[in-house]
From TrEMBL:
Membrane-spanning segments: 45-63, 75-94, 100-122, 134-154, 166-184, 210-231, 243-262, 283-305, 363-381
The name this protein goes by in its record: MFS transporter
Family annotation (InterPro entries): MFS (IPR011701)
Pfam families: MFS_1
Keyword line: Membrane, Transmembrane, Transmembrane helix
Domain of life assignment: Bacteria
Length: 392
């Protein structure tokens, strides 16, 4: 059983790495090349990408419900086909219309194939024991940008950005599709609710805890998206040199992975709410350090603190709802909780750009306030006494 679970984590971690590298992390490397080749402004390229994120958010609840009912093999396999189709359209784009069409298809693929769907699959397969597998796939897929950015940059420089998109499409069809459809276990029977009946949409009320979770996850994901787009620029506004800002930014990825290792180890003994609450305060602490001390070591400390919190919060999006509500309707619940954060984070880079122009490093007061608000929201959720020690 444990070998089967390990294989599932490796398969999902691998396909998640592929999905993130070839969709979410793609524009950062090739947006300027797309703009130059198609005659469309870079702002339009990022605008269509943002619209695809909104589309993926709107699909979340329906995708989660489909996984709850029948498992995720078909859903994730369909995402592989959609990613491949969207990337082929992108490679063929010579106008805004085809560019929009490509990102619509990729956006549907993201709705069917990123973390929320993968978490729902694990919840459907393993129920309350899904916490460690969820941590496992984020450990692997945490390297998506580390792997994806250099590969995309190399391909764009040596082959061309269109050929690179076609290569990513081929990997989806010949690697991602068979892994998602044939290598993942298939759940037995329909998902059932607590009364033993087939799960239904009505079984998921929008109660106080759901509202607080949606608020907390939205607040931290706005910060995550804003920082991902502007991190070096913010550090420079706080007093770091360009070289210090870039060097600090490199530490975010390792910090995320290190924090996820902590979540898989020592923090795994505690309820996921405890980990999530701790993760909300690391960004404000780091912001206080860099605002007080400027660049150099302070910039690196901020990067490590921000990255570690971000790494654990990615896991918390899957583990906290599972621990509070159980596996019944888990995929649908994740879709509802994830929709506001995906929707709001799509506009975060633009809003943060405006705030940096007006406030400079003062934008960190805004980002810290959002994280503190998320902490307060999570603190207002009652932790079940029976799950205070929530290991796997």
């Amino acid at each position: 059983m444990h070998n089967s679970r390990f294989l599932t984590v490796v398969v999902l971690g691998s396909t998640q790495t592929l999905a993130w590298a070839s969709s979410y992390y793609l524009p950062a490397i090739i947006a300027d090349r797309i703009a130059g080749d198609t005659g469309v402004s870079t702002n339009w390229v990022f605008g269509t990408f943002s619209a695809s994120l909104v589309l993926s958010a709107l699909l979340g609840p329906k995708v989660g419900r489909a996984i709850d009912r029948a498992g995720g093999n078909g859903v994730l396999a369909a995402s592989s086909v959609l990613f491949a189709t969207g990337l082929c359209l992108l490679a063929a784009a010579h106008s805004l219309a085809l560019l929009v069409a490509a990102w619509i298809v990729i956006g549907i693929g993201m709705g069917l194939g990123l973390y929320d769907a993968a978490f729902a699959v694990l919840g459907r397969l393993y129920g309350m024991a899904a916490r460690k597998p969820i941590t496992g796939i984020t450990l692997i897929a945490g390297f998506a940008s580390t792997i994806g950015w250099p590969l995309t940059a190399w391909g764009a420089a040596t082959l061309g950005w269109r050929e690179t998109c076609l290569l990513w499409a081929a990997v989806h069809l010949f690697v991602g599709l068979p892994l998602n459809y044939w290598m993942l276990p298939r759940p037995a029977g329909l998902a059932v609710g607590p009364a033993g009946k087939a799960a239904s949409v009505e079984a998921v009320p929008l109660d106080r805890t759901m509202i607080l979770l949606a608020f907390a996850f939205s607040a931290v994901w706005i910060v995550s998206a804003g920082m991902a787009a502007h991190f070096p620029r913010i550090l420079e506004a706080a007093g770091a040199s360009p070289a210090q800002a870039i060097a600090a930014g490199v530490l975010i990825g390792p910090a995320q992975v290190a924090a996820r290792l902590l979540e898989a180890g020592p923090l795994g003994r505690f309820h996921p709410l405890t980990s999530a609450r701790l993760a909300c305060v690391t960004h404000p602490i780091g912001a206080a350090v860099i605002l007080a001390a400027g660049g150099g070591v302070a910039a690196s400390a901020f990067a490590v603190l921000h990255g570690s919190g971000n790494g654990i919060l990615t896991i918390a999006r899957g583990t906290v709802p599972l621990s509070l509500y159980g596996p019944a309707n888990y995929g649908y619940r994740l879709g509802i909780l994830g929709a506001p954060s995906r929707f709001l984070s799509a506009g975060a880079p633009f809003v943060f750009a405006l705030l940096i122009d007006r406030l400079g490093a003062g934008v960190l007061f805004v980002s810290s306030a959002l994280c503190v608000a998320a902490f307060v929201g999570l603190w207002m959720i009652r932790q079940p006494a029976a799950q205070a020690n929530h290991g796997d």
